[in-house]
Write a structure and sequence with these properties.
heterodimer, A: mainly alpha, two-stranded antiparallel sheet, 33 helices, B: mainly alpha, 5 helices
């Protein structure tokens, strides 16, 4: 359906208009225009829910680079539907919230342009069926996230956080690109749906495992999984609406989307199962351990997001076990984990979004997010307090909130996995997963309580706050209230979500299980006095004890192993890389043009000449060559004379004129060979470059005789002669070998194929139009480069803008 | 140093029009005869360079008040845009088509989308060449 394709581009289009509207409406009201974009998209997507729930999928293809297998294909199924609703729904609420959150003094136009750019790219990620298109949008989300984190770019920490997130997610993305290309090499298709259909025959290929690991690398970096999670806490320098939107509800879930999307491709493999589950479980644990010790509320939420993302990730890992042996009554039980993952994904977006907004409100109203300075805000900000309670208790897994339901299902899934007898899963490993999961849940309970009790209960310390605490304006409260309503509403009507959103998504993750009994379980708040409920009670009891005696055991965080962290490794790596690269650059960047020419020519001699020697490709065949006429001899001798004369030229003008003789002689050669196009081009290029040369000479010093040693002269001579020899030999070898089919058939039929009689032009404008287009772009970039280098260079006394 | 080269200036005034006309002719005839966007653009830019050489930058700028950076940018957008245009009609990216029209003055003429693409190329070449030469020469 074309509408889905258009939906991707609507945010980009709107982003184009924002600066113009912002010029007219220089106030926060610009936000209402921006908000209409995701709202309309949300309503449109929601209107498709019944059809998608009925098993319908929408696909639409726009041909793009068909010959390379790259087409703009959009695909809407149950899985992309969930994400689409989250992106547009949470997006609308976040923009509504931001209208009141951001001051009118901020560069609102810029903010909304970035936000819309992000929204469009995120929709592109989830709706694209073609891996190359998906990759482009994937990196676009990284770039827009970079721009949004660095929104307050005058802060050093913002720039640091932006750079960190960009470096980590983009390097993961590049790895993912390599994985995609490997998939293409194996299956011959960039379409995810086609790959899912044919991957079965390729699982034994040597590229299968590297492709899987590289795709996972992309997913793990994006979704902040251990050890790549370190960028997320630093990304909290972004304005709070951005943190709520990108860094908890949508962008960080792109990795989870990728894992879900590729479960039918790689799922059922032991490596996939262990990597995804293991990394997820450990991230869950590590995130919750680190969240407890945070004193900044936003940092606490960042680590809790990491931890929750780990939870969802591990569930997808557990769920992939079902694909190991295809559909059977036994294997369908493992799909429950994926069901819980999708369910928790929705729940997490609701309660975490609400919590981020609450933290933003507290920060906005009293001027600090430090829990050591906060306390006793309950009576002063009752509505905010209520939302905080709903969000935190849901996160802790307490009823009557949606987090309770998905947490119970999570416990059930980790317990089921103990019975798994594939993948060489022994009883030790099988029991370890539930234990770690339970421990992490206890810590989750502890930090959820910290958010509520240390902010809103306890002693109020008005003298330590920047502003007097009062309740936030209504506009700021609407968005988190709506999310809180969902938190409660989903608890009471979970099966609405289950039937309309999760059922089609499950079919998308498990194509072979379509319509199977037990794929979509009935969600019930009370499901008997069984193991999961006992685990939850245990979490509450132990968690409450741990929270009460927090100050007694907090000391363990200052133990030595806890201080050794990944952040310092990242920083060390960064400075080391900088040092090494600047050392390397200093050694060969001498500032002498002749040195650079030596590098280029030596490289050329070694690769091309060496290549010829290595392959033994000397076969010079002169039999097909046309006889050389007298006029050609004359031109050649003129050229030789001119080039030798350049060496002995005394002034630059002489040299450049002699160079011109060379150029024009080539043009005459083209005329002799009856290539008027080339001759024309050569003459004009020669004329323009001569003018350019003369212009540049204005800036150059007098041409003085170089004082060089004899050995250096010999060295240069050798290089010059070798380059000449290599080029000559190459030209002769090329002429003497026929490695490829002649393409002259194109030229002979140019009129039928391209509608033009000038074959040079049909090559430029039709056969190789893509090359020409990119060349034009490169030319333009070069022009801009020259312009900026000359016009925008800093004067000698100017301040260095980088630090 | 004030240059007052009457002969060169007078000749240029006439020659520039010949060069410009030649450039346009090359550009238009490119589909069937020698020529095309790239050469046409180069010829046009050489005419501008000649003007800048003979007269000073301010004088020329009064006569031709273009920002050549924008000309180049417009050219790039045009070249890429024609490619996208074919996508809108359901064909592959950069597919070109042509058709015959009866124009009032020219009679039966073949118009091709390649011409739009080539116009983009020509504008970019003109814009970039003049921008480079101008930026270097103004850096005195």
């Amino acid at each position: 359906m074309l509408a889905i394709t258009i939906a991707i581009f609507i945010p980009f289009m709107a982003a184009l208009f924002v600066p113009f509207i912002y010029k007219r409406v220089r106030s926060r009201n610009i936000g209402w225009f921006v908000m209409s974009v995701p709202l309309v998209l949300f309503i449109y997507l929601a209107s498709l829910i019944p059809a998608v729930a009925g098993g319908k999928t929408y696909i639409h293809t726009i041909k793009w680079i068909d010959s390379a297998g790259i087409n703009f294909t959009t695909y809407l199924d149950g899985l992309s539907m969930i994400f689409g609703l989250l992106i547009t729904g949470v997006g609308s609420l976040v923009i509504l919230y931001s209208i009141y959150y951001l001051s009118e003094r901020e560069a609102l136009g810029r903010f909304y342009v970035y936000l819309l750019m992000f929204m469009g790219s995120m929709l592109g990620v989830i709706f694209s069926d073609n891996l190359m298109v998906l990759y482009v949008f994937w990196e676009l989300t990284s770039i827009s996230s970079f721009l949004l984190i660095a929104f307050w770019y005058h802060r050093k920490k913002s720039r640091y956080g932006a750079q960190k997130s960009m470096l980590i997610t983009v390097s993961g993305g590049v790895g993912m690109l390599a994985g995609f290309i490997m998939l293409y090499t194996m299956t011959g298709s960039y379409s995810v749906r086609e790959i899912i259909g044919t991957i079965g025959q390729y699982t034994n290929e040597s590229l299968f495992l590297p492709a899987m690991l590289l795709v996972l690398l992309g997913a793990f970096t994006k979704s902040a999984q251990f050890p790549f999670h370190i960028w997320l806490p630093d990304a909290m320098e972004a304005p709070t609406p951005v943190s709520a939107y990108l860094h908890s509800a949508t962008m960080v879930k792109a990795g989870i989307y990728l894992v879900a999307r590729f479960t039918p491709v790689f799922g059922g493999e032991a490596v996939w199962f262990y990597t995804v589950t293991g990394v997820g479980i450990f991230t869950l644990f590590w995130g919750s351990v680190n969240a407890v010790r945070q004193t900044d509320l936003k940092a606490l939420l960042a680590y809790s997001t990491i931890s929750q993302l780990g939870l969802i990730m591990s569930l997808f890992g557990l769920g992939s076990a079902a694909l190991n042996e295809g559909y059977s009554a036994d294997s369908v039980i493992y799909t429950q984990a994926t069901f819980a993952a999708l369910f928790h994904l929705i729940n997490h977006s609701t309660f975490k979004g609400a919590l981020f907004m609450v933290v933003g409100i507290v920060d906005h109203q009293v001027g600090t997010r430090d829990i050591r300075r906060l306390g006793g805000l309950m009576s002063l900000m009752p509505v905010t307090f209520t939302i905080a309670v709903i969000g935190s208790f849901s996160m802790a897994g307490l009823p009557p909130f949606n987090g309770f339901l998905s947490k119970e299902m999570f416990f059930e899934s980790v317990l089921i996995i103990r019975n798994l007898d594939i993948f060489a899963m022994g009883p030790v490993w099988g029991s370890l997963i539930p234990v770690v999961a339970w421990l992490a849940s206890v810590l989750t309970f502890v930090y959820s309580m910290i958010i509520v009790f240390q902010t809103f209960l306890g002693k109020h310390q008005p003298d330590r706050l920047d502003r007097k605490a009062i309740e936030a304006p209504v506009g700021m409260l609407i968005a988190p209230l709506i999310l809180a309503l969902f938190v409660v509403g989903i608890f009471f009507f979970p099966n609405v979500v289950g039937n309309y959103l999760l059922r089609p998504a499950m079919t998308a993750v498990y194509p072979p299980f379509e319509g199977a009994e037990g794929l979509v379980p009935h969600i019930a708040a009370w499901h008997g006095f069984n193991a999961p409920i006992i685990m939850t009670i245990g979490v509450i009891v132990v968690g409450a004890l741990l929270y009460t005696y927090l100050r007694y055991w907090r000391g363990i965080y200052s133990l030595a192993p806890m201080r050794w962290n990944l952040d310092s490794m990242y920083n060390g790596l960064l400075t080391q890389t900088e040092k090494a690269s600047s050392f390397l650059t200093r050694t060969y960047m001498t500032g002498y043009l002749r040195d650079y020419l030596v590098y280029i020519f030596v490289f050329f001699i070694l690769t091309v000449g060496g290549g010829l020697l290595w392959t033994g490709g000397f076969s010079i065949d002169l039999s097909n060559d046309a006889p050389i006429t007298i006029s050609e001899y004359i031109i050649i001798f003129v050229m030789m004379g001119a080039s030798i004369a350049i060496i002995f030229a005394k002034s630059r003008i002489t040299a450049i004129l002699l160079n011109g003789v060379l150029g024009y002689s080539i043009a005459i050669l083209f005329v002799v060979f009856r290539a008027p196009d080339l001759a024309l081009t050569q003459i004009i290029v020669e004329t323009v470059t001569t003018a350019l040369f003369l212009l540049c000479f204005y800036f150059l010093p007098e041409w003085s005789k170089e004082k060089t040693t004899r050995s250096l002269k010999v060295f240069k001579g050798i290089i010059a002669i070798s380059v000449g020899t290599v080029v000559t030999v190459l030209a002769l070898v090329v002429q003497g070998n026929k490695m490829f089919e002649s393409i002259s058939v194109y030229f002979e039929n140019a009129y039928e194929l391209a509608g033009g009689k000038n074959i040079v032009n049909t090559i430029l404008g039709d056969f190789r139009a893509f090359d020409t287009m990119l060349e034009v772009v490169v030319l333009f970039i070069a022009g801009i480069g020259v312009f900026t280098l000359i016009k925008l260079k800093a004067g000698k006394g100017d301040e260095d803008v980088e630090d | 140093m004030k240059i007052n080269d009457v002969i060169l200036q007078t000749v240029t005034k006439i020659v520039v029009f010949i060069i410009l006309t030649f450039g346009v002719e090359l550009f238009l005839s490119g589909h069937y005869n020698p020529g095309g966007g790239f050469i046409g653009g180069l010829v046009l830019s050489s005419a501008f360079v000649l003007l800048y050489l003979v007269f000073d930058i301010e004088t020329v700028h009064k006569g031709i008040p273009f920002d050549f950076k924008k000309v180049a940018a417009f050219g790039v957008l045009l070249a890429v845009g024609t490619g996208l245009g074919s996508v809108l009609f359901g064909a592959s990216f950069l597919t070109q088509t042509a058709s015959h029209f009866n124009l009032p003055v020219f009679g039966a003429t073949e118009l091709s989308t390649v011409m739009l693409f080539e116009a983009g190329v020509a504008l970019t070449v003109v814009g970039v060449v003049v921008t480079i030469i101008l930026s270097i020469s103004e850096d005195v």
